[in-house]
Amino acid sequence: MWTLLAHPVNGYKKSTMPPGDFSEEMDETPNDPQVKVLFVDDESNILRALRRLVAEENFETLIATSGEEGLEVIKANEDIGLIVSDQRMPGLTGAEFLEKAKAIAPDSLRIVLTGYADLQATMDAINKGGAYRYITKPWNDEELIQTIRDGVARYSLFMENRRLTELVNRQNEELKDWNSNLKKRVLEQTAHIGKKNEELAAANSRLHQTFDQTIKAFAGLIELRDLDVRDHSRNVADLAVAIAQELDLDKNQRQAIRTAALLHDIGKIGIDDAILLKDTDVLTARELEKYKLHAIRGQAVVDAVDDLREVGILIRHHHECYDGSGFPDRQRGKDIPLGARIIAIADHVDRISKRIRQENALEMALEKTRQQLGRLFDASLFPHLEKHAKAIYSTPDKLAKHRGMVEAELSPEQLLEGMIVLRNVVSGTGLLLLSKGAILDEAAIKSLKRYYKIDPPEHAVLVLRQL
Ligand SMILES: [Fe+2]
Ligand SMILES: [Fe+2]
Fold first, then answer.
1. How far is ligand 2, taken at its centre, from the CA of residue 347, in Å?
2. How high is the pLDDT of residue 8?
3. Which ligand has the minimum distance to the alpha carbon of residue 299?
4. Ligand nearest to the CA of 229
5. What pLDDT was estimated at residue 436?
6. CA–centroid distance, residue 315 to ligand 1 (Å)
7. Ligand 1 centre from 298 Cα, in Å?
8. CB–CB of 415/452 below 8 Å?
9. In 3D, which of 394, 395, 344, 335 has the Cα closest to residue 369?
10. Domains, the chain, with CATH or none
């Protein structure tokens, strides 16, 4: 006869945690599932004694009065932790029973109770039944309870170890999944960021282009006031940038100098034509005062644009003289911002060369400028200016003619990239669209096509083109 004590036994919970924080799950003990201990003996008084012995212990006790019954109990409780069986029983012997029990519940620990003289039976129980301990009858209570406790503890440890191993294996698998997903996501994100960067770079370049076109449009506006100095701003910008490059100035400084050179006379827009058309030498004192205001006014105009504040400072000082005799602040020497000193000398060369109207105008303008070094201009800048002036003022037409190019007057639709402009292209209302010597590119051709629609020039475009 045997009884099943109705203690619910908790299984080992499967992890539902995401990987990353294992500590909680590692610490988690599976709610102290009670280990099941089965006693098998054909003598009911022994079973009673055994139950009494373990009555206070914290494990679930099951009993069976024969090996056959014991097997039934095990089949119903495959998670049995410890089996304590008598060796000498009618029917199955303890060794035979343990052998079968081992096949059903291989994780269980098995103990056999034998008589002193039963050496062969003990060996069978150990070898066949996989018993890990044997206890001789009659037993010592203390020894037996200690052996049972050890067995239960050993089984618990074994199961806990297995649980943790399974947990680690499972979490390793989850980690592997996460790693491969993470790698995939990182690659996707990298590609996404790369695409966004390209879009940003494109937007930035469009912004720069727009800025550049706006500055050029302003420069064109200034040149409209005085048709004689049509490409003045552009020439000053080319000369000034060439000097800035020689001085190894960084990109931002070169950009500021170029913009300031293009806009240096923007303040003239508010000055009377009567004053502008006169040479400064013949202006009355009052007219001269008004004329001088253009430097400050120029700064004031661009100061409203954050990005042009530095440019505004260069514009303000483009008429300062090296000896302190200039305007508006009478700065002298190296106190004058370098960009303003560069623009001042470039401005002078271009103005003088335009006034001379002779074949060797540039050489004469350079000579006149040289005479003013140290007085009006920073002498250290002159060699750089001289080095680049010829290339900037000479048009590539002569060179091109040597390469077998021929002149042609073409409508905007007939223009091709690489053609060289031989005559300034001026819009119907007098805006300089392209300077003589410019080499056509896609943007220039597009721009000309637009202008021929909105403000058509009087002539077709005179160019050099390949035969
Ligand atoms: Fe000026
Ligand atoms: Fe100027």
1. 5
2. 32
3. 1
4. 2
5. 79
6. 8
7. 9
8. no
9. 344
10. 23-178 (3.40.50.2300), 226-393 (1.10.3210.10), 395-467 (no CATH)
